Amino acid sequence: MTLFGWLVGGSGRAGDVILDVELEEGLLFLVVRNIGDAPAHRVRCSFDKTIRGAGGDIVMNELPLFTRLTFLVPGGEVRTLLDSAAAYFARGETTEFTVTVEFVEDSGARRSRHIAHDLSVHRDLLIPLRPG
Fold first, then answer.
1. What is the pTM assigned to this prediction?
2. CA 29 to CA 119: how far, in whole Å?
3. Residue 96 CB neighbour total at 10 angstroms
4. What is the CA radius of gyration of the chain?
5. What is the 3 state secondary structure string of 94-127?
6. What integer pLDDT is reported at residue 39 of this predicted model?
């Protein structure tokens, strides 16, 4: 940190939070990740469409992970299972959505970003099965 940064209370570091969708061994996960180098506070993820997981029984948008995550360390992430890719696509669930991720930095500054996702890119991927 520079002397000027120390004097004004700034570290020059910033949180940077994203929502990612990952496909792992046939399972879709929603991941809230701080890719920045400072903590993020009061993280909120607002989806423009309803996202249903776990066989269509759970509205993912309403999970506390997306509505009231109070703190996320630099490099930290929280993952939740959305559904198996096969079940999600077979139900005809939403494949295109935009999420707005909002959070507060240590300095009190509010930040936000919009991230567009298209899950259909995962639909036709070949997934190797583990023996056993």
1. 0.84
2. 11
3. 11
4. 17
5. CCEEEEEEEEECCCCCEEEEEEEEEHHHHCCCCC
6. 95
